[in-house]
Design a protein that fits this description.
This protein is mostly helical and 187 residues long. It contains 10 helices and no strands.
Amino acid sequence: MSKTDSHTWADIRSSFKDDQRRLIARTALELLMESGSAALTMSALADRAGMSRQTLYRYFPDLDHVLEASVEDFPAMDQQFRAMILTDPDPRTQLHLTVDVLIDATTHGGMTADELLAALPPGARDAVRAHQRRTEQLVADILTSLRGETTYDGTPTDDAALILGLVSAATDETRERTHDLIDRIIT
């Protein structure tokens, strides 16, 4: 076997391990959101991820490490989300797209944001709070861009917090009402 072949094999193995870690972390977050922290065990996670507990322990020593890994990609995801939202030239559309994505995210699982934070280990809580700050900054930036395009004359940082509070209380059934209330804030 040549040096190139072994290097390629090492790359393949490394890539597979990274993919497995991401699968486990994503599955843990889904299981936590759907069933709560009491249902999240290494056994339940292994079953849901389609692997043995022994295999699971090769990647993570405990649930805290799994949950910390589940939020590692949040900064990159936030950056991609921001870039995607800001491609639309209309700030109103940007705001409504952001709100819809956030409502979808908060209604996907059975946990509120506060319940999720309480279920996470401290390092993961910090990552989620940083994610929340980046989301609030995105909304504030969109609100700032509304100035001059509408009669909006509010305080973007304060109003971003207010809008995110509305979104956190929204459900699929109250989605339209949430959009109506946001329209009142920005016009």
